[in-house]
């Protein structure tokens, strides 16, 4: 794993951007671009990043950016790749940087089509589990029992397991990441840069505004997601699947922190603890954690 002191010094995410205080999206984006070293065309559908980087007439990203509609990011990236190929340019990464709304829901058909065509692109879903940019409405990535502006009493459905859907398309490289582990994230983007074909990186990304937590504890929440087993760090290159070192010891449920430690720091789950603790709903989330582990291990091992 790269040492922090060995990361490139050049910054591609510039100061003075419009991100919220404590925005973990900018942490992830910053380290991704350090790994890609500026040789990238970034496609951004409607999402938080599109607002952060494109307040006219300026941009906070020191790389070429194509803003596109919610549903069209993978199709736009496919067109950018075709244009580069026509010009004989093969070493530039075409990267989609899309939120969960533009991936789990509105953009999934274009993603599926691009991967079925084996398009050489890197698709990144930064998952803050809500339509954060448009008023914090629920998305297909919103967890069971989480409060949003459209699920006042808690979402009744568990989140979609998108990684299993993407895996069915057999990308050449697929991995999960977490903004609380920036060196791991950097290494994975560095690896993806050198691989030709459809690639998918799924980043867990806490959101202080939508999840209702103090801005200074975003990294703590991201790490608790791993330590409770809620978020699984893994990587697949071709047919070789590897459980990330951050998650290895949490494969055993006895080694995990209780999911309550993750939930109680977030206002979106406060109704599970007051006026009294809702043991049944908290147990639902414990059960989902194990269900996801079982599904991932069944799929990839």
Any overview of this molecule?
It contains eleven helices and eight strands. The chain is α/β, with parallel strands linked by helices and 301 residues long. It has a single domain (4-300), classed as Rossmann fold (3-Layer(aba) Sandwich). Strand 5, helix 7 and strand 6 (199-204) form a beta-alpha-beta unit. Helix 1 packs parallel to helix 7 (182-193). It is globular. It starts with 23 loop residues before the first helix and ends with a helix.
Shape: globular
The CATH class turns out to be Alpha Beta
Helix percentage range: 25-40%
The computed structural class is alpha/beta
Short description:
The chain is an alpha/beta fold and 301 residues long.
List the helices and strands and how they pair.
Blueprint: H1 24-36, E1 40-44, H2 48-53, E2 65-67, H3 73-86, E3 93-99, H4 101-105, H5 108-116, E4 122-127, H6 162-167, E5 173-178, H7 182-193, E6 199-204, H8 208-211, H9 218-227, E7 234-237, E8 240-243, H10 259-263, H11 279-300
Parallel strand pairs: 1-2, 1-3, 3-4, 4-6, 5-6
Antiparallel strand pairs: 5-7, 7-8
Helix pairs in contact: 1-7, 3-5
């Amino acid at each position: 794993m790269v040492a922090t002191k060995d990361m490139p010094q050049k910054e591609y995410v510039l100061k003075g951007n419009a991100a919220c205080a404590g925005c973990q999206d900018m942490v992830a984006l910053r380290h991704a671009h350090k790994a890609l070293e500026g040789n990238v065309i970034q496609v951004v559908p409607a999402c938080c990043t599109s607002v952060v980087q494109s307040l006219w007439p300026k941009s906070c990203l020191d790389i070429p950016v194509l803003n596109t509609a919610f549903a069209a990011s993978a199709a736009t990236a496919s067109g950018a790749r075709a244009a580069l190929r026509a010009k004989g340019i093969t070493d530039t990464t075409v990267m989609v940087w899309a939120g969960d709304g533009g991936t789990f829901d509105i953009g999934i058909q274009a993603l599926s089509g691009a991967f079925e065509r084996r398009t050489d692109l890197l698709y990144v879903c930064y998952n803050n589990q809500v339509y954060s940019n448009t008023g914090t409405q629920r998305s297909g990535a919103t967890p069971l029992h989480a409060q949003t502006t459209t699920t006042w009493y808690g979402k009744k459905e568990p989140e979609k397991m998108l990684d299993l859907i993407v895996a069915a398309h057999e990308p050449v490289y697929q991995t999960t990441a977490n903004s609380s582990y920036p060196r791991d994230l950097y290494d994975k983007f560095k690896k993806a840069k050198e691989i030709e074909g459809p690639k998918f990186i799924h980043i867990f990304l806490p959101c202080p505004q939508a999840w209702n937590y103090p801005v200074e504890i975003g990294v703590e929440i991201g790490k608790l997601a791993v330590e409770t087993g809620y978020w699984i760090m893994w990587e697949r290159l071709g047919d070789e699947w590897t459980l990330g070192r951050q998650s290895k010891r949490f494969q055993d449920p006895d080694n995990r922190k209780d999911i309550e430690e993750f939930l109680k720091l977030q206002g979106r789950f406060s109704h599970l603890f007051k006026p009294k603790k809702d043991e049944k709903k908290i147990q639902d989330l414990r059960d989902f954690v194990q269900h996801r582990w079982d599904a991932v291990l069944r799929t990839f091992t």
